[in-house]
Amino acid sequence: MKRYRKISYVLGGILFLVVGMLAFQVYESGMEERRICKQKAEVSLKSATELWANREFDKLGIPYSVGGGEPNKESKQRRIVLAEGETVVAVDSIKEGKRLIASQDLSAKVGFLFLVDKAVFSVLNELWQEDLDDSHTYCSGALMLQSELPGDRKGKRFMVGDSTLMTDKFKLGTYYLDDMYFLELTAYLSLPSLWLCADWEKTGIVSCSIVVVFCLCIFVLLFWNNRKKNNDDEAADPDDFVICISENKYQIGGVLFDEEACTLTFEDRSVVKCPMQSYKLLSAFVHAKSHFLSNNRIVEVCGWSLENININQNRRVTVSLLRKLLDTEKSHVIIESGQNEQKEQGFYMLVEK
User: Fold this and answer.
1) Does the predicted TM-score (pTM) go above 0.90?
2) DSSP assignment, residue 275?
3) Same structural domain for residues 164 and 247?
4) C-alpha–C-alpha distance, residues 27 and 167, integer Å
5) 269: left (phi over 0), alpha (psi -120 to 50) or beta
6) Count of domains in the chain?
7) Which of 36-45, 92-101, 131-140, 311-320 has the lowest mean pLDDT?
8) Could you tell me if residue 344 is inside a domain?
9) Inter-CA distances, 228 with 2, 233, 273, 289, Å
10) What is the secondary structure of 63-94 as a DSSP string?
11) Which of 11, 75, 345, 346 has a CA that sits 20 to 30 A from residue 30's CA?
């Protein structure tokens, strides 16, 4: 039993350590994969936006051309002329980095679509979601567009997708669809849990998982073997008068033997401390087959030398002291001399019936 407990404690410690390492590996892998997933979702949104802009503009059937050559240097301002007048905006380096469409021509087309109110914004989210479904399982997106076009004092807001995602928790980023910064797009992305995002084929995760499974298998085998051993012990002799009531505690007739505390507790609640030699002998009787100890076994238990000329006398005295300690009238336990099946002389521990 003690050996079983020690092995269980060691395995439990190893299992606890490895499970902690596994959880850490999964967390790190999940966080890294989620970061990569966000980057890919952003690239996917840019691709879907360009495709959507070209399709929507082509539906208008309006000829479009660009001329005038390339400027020698980049202008620090951009301007647009409408019926309401000319609008000039300063080029903002931060906002430039957030533009989804790098091409100024395509950005102008997007601005024109919203000016003439011909843009079907919901199609953009559908295209993005299709791309997400193909490459990022369990991801879901939503879009919100704030339009601040010239001449529109109140501005307009368009929202498509799952509205419950439109919180800072799911915010992917804020972008601009045109080069005049009139069309501000906010994208929201719902990602799978860390467990689903983690790369379970990663070497560290696979190694830790194997160790965890191995430790659990050993735990099951230990438990099964210990249970089988206990069942075999119980089935071996159902009439055995030595009953293990708990770890290191045995009921022998009318006395309780605490092997760990080296005490005897009788039915009248009196407690007696066992001398060392009597304790060794009684413990050996408890664990011996049929509770029989041969003369030579008693010598081994007591630690005597076989060359001792007084060995027989010492044996009789030690057995006599144990009989006195057990107090047959109280415990109903007797120590009798006899032979075992191998014709060895020795002593039996019995209980009076």
Assistant:
1) no
2) P
3) no
4) 24
5) left
6) 2
7) 131-140
8) yes
9) 16, 9, 34, 18
10) -----S---SS--SEEEEEETTEEEEEE--HH
11) 11
